[in-house]
Amino acid sequence: MARARPTHGLLQSELTRQIGSHLREHRPECDVVSNPGIVPQLMSAHNCRVPDLAVTCSPLEPGQLALSGAVLIIEILSPSNEGETWTNVWAYTSIASVQEILVLHSTKLAAELLRRTSDGAWPARTTTVTTGTLRLESIDFQMPLADLCARTPLAR
């Protein structure tokens, strides 16, 4: 795996900080985890993915190798891993507990969001956010997209 660029790292750090603070105050039973092992249902015996972040509301067990019960998975899209990232997103849709998947761009001010519908299905297309507020319903979190990217070159 290629080394992450500084903008990627800043976005990951800021999301961890913002979501972690929100969870401690509003959803203390949940945790945000950086670079967790995630096992999709598709070919689960041979398939482990590592997203940038995930939120679980399931208790962590000693010695646990992969995160279980993820409700939100976040990938930060870089030019060097775009194809792999979208392949991972497809695999994440097979996990029953996942309610939302956020793909945050690292080269432009944009986020793409997949959210399960009320009947449990996934939409055919992502919802793109380029201005205004980024809302993550799975954890009742929101923040202006511009604030998320304020300390990165994307804000300039």
Give a description of the structure:
This protein has 156 residues and is of the alpha+beta class. The protein has one domain (6-155): Alpha-Beta Complex (tt1808, chain A). The strands form 2 sheets. A 6-stranded mixed sheet has the order 1-2-3-4-5-6, sandwiched between helices. Strands 7-8 form a two-stranded antiparallel sheet. The chain contains 3 helices and 8 strands, in the order H-E-E-E-H-E-E-E-E-E-H. It has helices spanning 6-26, 82-92, 145-148, and strands at residues 31-34, 53-56, 70-77, 100-105, 111-115, 127-129, 133-136, 141-144. The protein starts with 5 loop residues before the first helix and ends in an 8-residue tail after the last helix. The model has no long low-confidence stretch (mean pLDDT 90).
Number of strands: 8
Structural class, judged by helices and strands? Answer: alpha+beta
Could you list the spans in which at least 5 consecutive residues all have pLDDT below 50? Answer: none
CATH superfamily: tt1808, chain A
Helix content range: 10-25%
End-to-end separation in angstroms reads 28 Å
What is the C-alpha radius of gyration, as a whole number of Å? Answer: 15 Å
SSE succession: HEEEHEEEEEH
Overall morphology: globular
